[in-house]
Fold:
Amino acid sequence: MIESVDLLLALCIALAAVLYSSVGHAGASAYIALMALFGIEAAVMRPTALVLNIIVASLASFRFLKAGLFRWRALWPFLVTAIPMAWLGGTIHLPSEIYRPLVGGVLWLSAARLLWPRELKVEREASDPPLLFALPMGAFIGLLAGLTGTGGGIFLSPLLLFMAWAPTRQASGIAAVFVLANSLAGLGGQIATLDALPPQLPLYAGAALIGGIIGTSIGLKVNIKLILKLLALVLLIAGAKLIGLY
Structure:
């Protein structure tokens, strides 16, 4: 039986999916935070968040790819090493007192740069990320994604923008595919936890899907500067979650 608290959580999940999918992310960090606020058991949160991530990232990948907002050369050097490390990270359960605040701080610094008055030169012709940098960085991001139960888009998007390896909307499309692949790998590393998925999952999944439809429509149409501000907001929220402020 669906209770009012389940409906309220589903509504919050839908709103999170709107915000995150508008910038090519899928919202796992927000789903984890929401489930924690609603008293969901820790063993349930990470696999549930990854399932919702896969749903939203699948939709976002399809819509951004269909719109031509994707470049394979900017993705695969990160992805080829990120996928196995995301799987590995999903199998590891480490104390979070050290790495979570550090990662949260990095996300806050990235958000501050996106909000900096000096305009980012992200709409010029994009260059290709060098393999000697992208391969180890992809492994690092994939490991962080697996450890934190996210898809890694919150780490990849700012990097693509700061290094001018993709314009803003294309960075969203690249991040969406990256998130989808890492979420699948991360869930594979947690295959033993799938029996912990809650009975309310269909409700949450439907809410995430609706939110993803709305969010990707926003991301494909709104002003570039607004997308950057939305991305900064996403990074601030995710950073606060990792640091433990809520």
Q: What stands out?
A: The chain has one domain: 4-243. DSSP finds ten helices and no strands in the chain.
